[in-house]
C-alpha cells in the first residue's frame, strides 16, 4: 500500500506530530458507532503486535493486518482547506471524508 500526500497534507500531518515522535495508523474505529466503522488516523508511539508498516516516507503509516484488505494499493490523503479534516481516496473509492487525526500517544 502507498499513500500519496500533497504539500498541505504533509504540513498538517507534521503539525499533528507536534515535534514529538509518532506514527500514523489508518484505523476503522467500530466502537460505539453502530456502523461498519469510521476511518480515523491515530498518532501512535509504536505499532501494536498486529500492525504492519506499509509506508515509511515522508511519515510512517501503519494499519492492523486484519484491516489491510479494506484499503487499496495506492491512495491519496488530502487535507481539507480551512477545516481540520482529511479525505482519503483512490482511483476507485472514497474511503472517507471528514477524517480526523486522534493523538493516541501515551
Automatic annotation (TrEMBL):
It comes from the Bacteria. Residues 1-102 form the Core domain. InterPro entries: ATAP_core_dom, HesB-like_dom_sf. This is Uncharacterized protein YqkB.
Amino acid at each position: 500500500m502507498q499513500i500519496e500526500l500533497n504539500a498541505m497534507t504533509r504540513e498538517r500531518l507534521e503539525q499533528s506530530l507536534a515535534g514529538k515522535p509518532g506514527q500514523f495508523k489508518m484505523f476503522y474505529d467500530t466502537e460505539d458507532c453502530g456502523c461498519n466503522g469510521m476511518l480515523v488516523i491515530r498518532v501512535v508511539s509504536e505499532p501494536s503486535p498486529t500492525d504492519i508498516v506499509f509506508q515509511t516516507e515522508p511519515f510512517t503509516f501503519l494499519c492492523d493486518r486484519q484491516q489491510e484488505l479494506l484499503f487499496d494499493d495506492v491512495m491519496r490523503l488530502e487535507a481539507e482547506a480551512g477545516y481540520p479534516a482529511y479525505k482519503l481516496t483512490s482511483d476507485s473509492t472514497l474511503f472517507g471524508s471528514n477524517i480526523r487525526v486522534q493523538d493516541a500517544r501515551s
